[in-house]
Amino acid sequence: MSENYLSRTERKQVHKNEKPNTKKNKKQTSFFRKLLIGCLVLGTLGLIGVATTFFTLIKDAPILEKSKLVNPLSAKIYDKDGKLIYEYGKEKRTNITYNQLPKLIENAFLATEDARFYDHSGVDFKGTARAVLVSLTGNYGSQGGSTITQQVIKNYFLSTEKTAKRKVQEIYLAHKLEKRYSKHQILEMYLNKIYLGNRSYGIRTAAQNYYGKELKDLTLPQVAMLAGLPKGPSIYDPTKQQNIEKATERRNVVLSAMYQNKYISEEQMTEASRVSVKEGLMPPKEVNEMPYPVFIDAVVKEVEKELPDAHIESDGLSIYTTLDPKAQKFAENILNTNIISYPNDNFQGAFTFMDTKTGEVRAIGSGRGENKATFKGENMAIELKRSIGSTMKPIFDYGPAIEYLKWPTSHQLDDSNYKYSTGQKVQNADRTYKGMMTMRDALKMSRNIPAIKTAKEVGISKAQGFAEGLGIKFGKEVPESTAIGTNEGSPTEIAGAYAAFGNDGKYTKPHFVKKVVYPDGESKSFEPKSKRVMEDYTAYIVTDMLRSVVTSGTGTAANVDSLDVAGKTGTTNYSAADVAKYGIPSSASRDSWFAGYTPQYTMAVWTGYMKNGPEDYISSKNTKIAQQIFKEMMHKFGTNKSKFKMPKTVIQDNSELRVKGAKQESSPNVNTNTVIQMETGEKDQKQEQNEQDKNQQEQKQGEQDKNQQEQKQSEQDKNQQEQKQSGQDKNQQEQKQSGQDKNQQEQKQGEQDKNQQEQKQSEQDKNQQEQKQGEQDKNQQEQKQGEQDKNQQD
């Protein structure tokens, strides 16, 4: 048979293999068809979902009102009761038309803000992608992701919140604006609306405020400087000395962008970049008609911090503040009238007056005379940085000791010679030591050494954590001297910390704004939530000790009879080098503080001088001025005469307080001003011993005298007592009263004289008594000893 011959069975198998697998192919075709259909369905559903979401997001988008596009909106500022007090940004604006716009200014802003302005239809997706790519590579250029059209929409109609809804509405309205208005009209809207710092709204106003020029007269460096301002008006404002370096860098970025877009030559760019940004600048514009300028300044700065993307003066914001107009007016009068007698015009003051419970600031004071605060100037109430002195002691020392160690107010502290761990000696203000004293007295008398020892026992890091919970800020290092207030702070910071003690241990950040409402109805709350930062017993015990400061301690000048006041003084000294340099007294103070509170209001006051000089120091008689300012404000506005309520977690032992459940302390070194109630069930013998200790302290003898009396009972005394008649011994004990013992102690004879009398012959005893004890002893022997003397003679 041929090798090529195949059997019938083999031929069938070959034929079978050559046939296509139709079942398998059908299955594969069915799978791909289903996948394609699924994708189409999902895609359709996705598109429907996106479309639904898009229309949901834009359905309540603001209407493009022409009046808003033509006239930028000022911010309306309201007081605590919702009454309009000022329209911020309502100054006269001078608009321009496109035909009045110099080409140089148009080119500068287009190169900086939107180089493809004439190529896109409102949203530049290509430009946005490029901006993202550039930012990812770290090469930050002049442009952001928003077009000029989008910026018009943001500035006129939308809030600054960065949400998906807001972004969708921005894109939708930008397209709508491009359809309704020409490119030239949109550019006009932008340049007439844009805020450029220095109270300048629109490019023409900015040219006048910065350079006193019309637009056509501006130079290339000046135009580039103005074009760089929209990104950060307050950061790049060249009228502020601290901004010069950043303003120069930003101006040069604009020049570079103009060169890259072929609007200027390389030579023009180089030459313009060499010009100082200060060249040709006008002085900052003064605003005298603004009511409550120092408070509105604090309001604006708070809004700028919380809403950095907002244009406060042109976004049409409604700002609801915490201002009490009457309190603010009186605050300004305290510093700038004769309500209080100030030593000279250079003497300065600053303070914050706030609600103890809510943290809402009602009024602030900042500066006197030439240092009187102006809008957008230095606001000492919120920006001052001066050492806070002993106002730190409740915050860093005694508050933490009660919180973490549960010390009672009677806890004993040693005011004696002490050094920092560095070896430097610690001094009290009066350069003396008072010995053992209670924690209450240590705070009341503002002793430095007990305060530092307390912070050390608590632990510096723990004390720091406690203080940070009260809004106190620290540098990288926290030295031991922080315990007595070498760190710096502002009146607003200190007021916020003290308010927590008066608010049951809950801290509420001091604030000037309640809420901001945008033109589209969106609102932003500025009211912080209160948070518990200490136990209620800590807050109340500190408060009770601070009551002692104003009733009988260093802060009596701040006390208001009708109010429950708690507070603390604080002073700082000049260095030895400054004392020698300026020839001022060593007792002179550099800063004088008072921080105090009632259940209704809290206030922190700083007084001092901004510069050192031979006449610029606080004398001892003027350290009370801070307390006087506090008293005037509280007396005027303190209407709530309620008392601080003691919580159930605190136990009162006579005049002292302790934490309920904490281990009770007892000490033999009780100050005469301190009464410690003995534990229930103590033995009578311990009570008698404490009474003896008290008498010995008054007689300046101490425990040593007691030990001598108890120990000098020798066997010889016992034998003599047995030999002598019991009646005689009785009479001697009854007759030798405290007066004889007192004289013997003062003459340093003590029990030794008594032993000598019993051991020596009666005549010798009598002679010694006559020679050493004087007429008093002689009279006592003649009148009271009687038969005893006769027996001794025998």
Brief characterization of the structure:
The strands form six sheets. A five-stranded mixed beta sheet has the order 2-1-3-11-12, covered by helices on one side. A five-stranded antiparallel beta sheet has the order 5-4-16-15-14.
Shape: globular
Using the coordinates shown, work out and report the CATH topology of the largest domain.
Beta-lactamase
Number of domains: 3
Number of strands: 18
Distance between the termini: 173 Å
CATH architecture designation of the largest domain: 3-Layer(aba) Sandwich
Mean pLDDT: 81
* Major β-sheet profile: 5 strands, mixed
Protein name: Penicillin-binding protein 1A
Pfam families: Transgly, Transpeptidase
Biased composition (Basic and acidic residues): 8-21, 680-721, 743-794
Region (Disordered): 1-26, 655-794
Please explain how this structure is put together.
Residues 8-21, 680-721, 743-794 have a biased composition (Basic and acidic residues). It holds the Pfam family Transgly. Pathway: Cell wall biogenesis; peptidoglycan biosynthesis; Glycan biosynthesis. Residues 1-26, 655-794 are annotated as: Disordered. The protein has a five-stranded mixed beta sheet with strand order 2-1-3-11-12, with helices on one face. The chain has a five-stranded antiparallel beta sheet with strand order 5-4-16-15-14. A hairpin with a 5-residue loop joins strand 1 (75-78) and strand 2 (84-88). By secondary structure, it is α+β, with helices and mostly antiparallel strands. It is built from 33 helices and 18 strands.
